[in-house]
Each structure stands twice: as C-alpha cells, then as structure tokens.
Amino acid sequence: MSNQADDADMGSQIRKHEGGDPEAAPQDVDAQATVAGIDVSGHQKNVDWQYWWNQGKRFAYVKATEGTGYKNPYFAQQYNGSYNIGMIRGAYHFALPDRSSGAAQANYFVDNGGGWSKDGKTLPGALDMEYNPYGGTCYGKTPAQMTAWIKDFSDTYHARTGRWPVIYTSTSWWSSCVNGDFSSTNPLWVARYASSVGKLPYNWGFHTIWQYSSSPIDQNSFNGGYDRLQALANG
User: Fold this and answer.
1) Would you put residue 173 in left (φ > 0), alpha (ψ -120 to 50) or beta?
2) How far is 13 from 203, CA to CA, in rounded Å?
3) Which member of 9, 39, 66, 218 is catalytic?
4) More confident residue, 211 or 9
C-alpha cells in the first residue's frame, strides 16, 4: 500500500491508461457557448493567476485533498488566488476508495477546503474518480461496491454542504469500475484528450465540464455560457 502522502493530479492516470493527444484542441468547443477554465494541484506550486486570467480562463478547480491523509500545501495560494483574480473556483478531492469510506473522505474534503458557500464565485466540490495510481484499476472493488462508495461520498458531501459534488471521470474507467447512475444528481466532468468529447459515462445525457488537454496545464471547457457557470456556482 502506498503512503497516503502521495499526490496524484487530476487526469494523470487517465492520460497514463488511455493516452490521447495532450495537445489536442477541441473542435466543437467554439460551436456553442462555453467558458474556458483550468485545474491545478500541488504539482503547479504557486500559480500565476494573472497570466491565466489574461489567457481567457474564467474558472478553476484546485486540488484540496486525497484520501484522508493528504492536503495540497499550495491550496491557499491557488484557491484564494484564483478567486481574487476574478475566477469562479472550486476544490476537488482525489478519491482513494480502498483507503477509507466515502463518508470519511467527504468529511476530510469539506474540513480541508472542499466546502461550498453561496457567494457566486464558488463551485460545488468535485470528486475525482479515476484509475488507481497505487494499485489495481478499480481499487479492489466490484462495480456495486464502487457505486456504494461514490454514493456514500456524494450523500455525505450533500449533507454537509447542500450541494451534490461534481463527478470527474473518464468514460472508460467508469464503464469498468462503476455500475450506478448518478446522472440525476451529480454534474459530470468528463476527461477525454481528443478533438471531441465522445461517448459519456452511463446515463449522463450531457457533460457540464470537459477536460480536453493537459498541455501546458489541465485545460477545461464549461458546457454553457458564463451565466450558466454562475448558476452552477449559486446552486
């Protein structure tokens, strides 16, 4: 078992297992209203938020926690810095479902930066569900067990904050490891490094956010106009 202090960044395991062109520019983003954003973790250290604002980025997700033993040491600079420059921002949690319960990790997340406030600039927390960086793909869980773990996390986060967490995943990982339906409650943040978003995970009819590239930083597209991004923040 790996030390819980290990720090996996969002999408790192999807890139490792699924590949794709990290330079791929989305071809269908500009066809409709979208908002450009990024996500960051401790790997980015102190982020130059003015630079990314000038590049047109208007929202950001910041890694807060992983499992129940890791906190991003750069969280304050990243979370507050994105807010102060004018971005709508949220926090994310890298799930380690083989380490502790969904409820335990949701509480750890909320207690260490993953909360929500209706200030118009804070997105609901995101749950990063992807390939295990430290062991078997599905963390030793059956699809039914993984579904129950996610529900435990989601229900606990909802009880603490009044919001359902955004779920970040890839269609391939989700199809392999989960058999439940979260489409009626949890917004979908799908990772696919290609020119189109492609097939979505089970029963989601549309994506809310698409992570389409990791170069030179994780690049995201919100599926809607700025007013819809504000609506997601406000709940």
Assistant:
1) alpha
2) 23
3) 39
4) 211
φ and ψ at residue 161, rounded to 5 degrees = -120, -20
Matching residue, tokens 């978003």: 197
Q: What is the pLDDT of residue 16?
A: 83
Half-sphere exposure of 115 (CA within 13 A, CB side): 7
Distance between CA 179 and CA 194 in Å, rounded? 25
Rounded to whole angstroms, the Cα distance separating 20 from 6 reads: 25
Q: Can you tell me the distance from the alpha carbon of 140 to that of 157, in angstroms, rounded to the nearest whole number? A: 23
Active site residue 128: yes
9, 18, 66, 128: which one is catalytic?
Answer: 128
Nearest to 200 by CA among 178, 232, 227, 233: 178
- pLDDT tens track for 45-59: 999 999 999 999 999
- The answer to whether 18 is a known catalytic residue is no
Q: How far apart, in whole angstroms, are the C-alpha atoms of residue 208 and residue 204?
A: 10
Catalytic residue among 9, 18, 66, 130: 130
Candidate from 51-55, 67-71, 106-110, 192-196 with smallest mean pLDDT: 192-196
Whether the Cβ atoms of residue 199 and residue 158 lie closer than 8 Å to each other: no
39 is catalytic: yes
CA-based torsion, 191, 197, 203, 209: positive or negative: positive
